[in-house]
Amino acid sequence: xxxxxxxxxxxxxxxxxxxxxxxxxxxxxxxxxxxxxxxxxxxxxxxxxxxxxxxxxxxxxxxxxxxxxxxxxxxxxxxxxxxxxxxxxxxxxxxxxxxxxxxxxxxxxxxxxxxxxxxxxxxxxxxxxxxxxxxxxxxxxxxxxxxxxx
Length: 150
Fold this sequence. Notes:
Elements: H1 2-18, H2 23-41, H3 45-51, E1 52-64, E2 67-73, H4 75-84, E3 90-94, E4 98-102, E5 105-116, E6 119-133, E7 136-145
Parallel strand pairs: 1-7
Antiparallel strand pairs: 1-2, 3-5, 4-5, 5-6, 6-7
Helix pairs in contact: 2-3, 3-4
Keywords: Signal
Signal peptide: 1-16
Protein name: Nuclear transport factor 2 family protein
């Protein structure tokens, strides 16, 4: 019986080990996220596009009068909107966040507040999915929430 229990839990133990992160991996993932936010601050559409992997998705969870839906925006449209701003107009202020990694896949859950021209417009959370391509972390997907801040 003990052997059977050990065999059942052994895969869980090895999975848990792959979910641990190293400081170097965390820094590389945070850099990919920071590159996006720096591109936004600089109103640099090229930098914003470069933060994303090919085929990446950008979505927002909306709740209108109790009806929840998900709105999808193309990365190209998002980068274009960022490029129309003036440097310094867009500032996403992030809170401490959690990173989980399994091989070449990572997630980062990031609470934020979004400022436009120095005024808080909304806040919420970003859920990033990142993939490591040829040693470089790229954003594969972001889904976020948006609400009025207190």
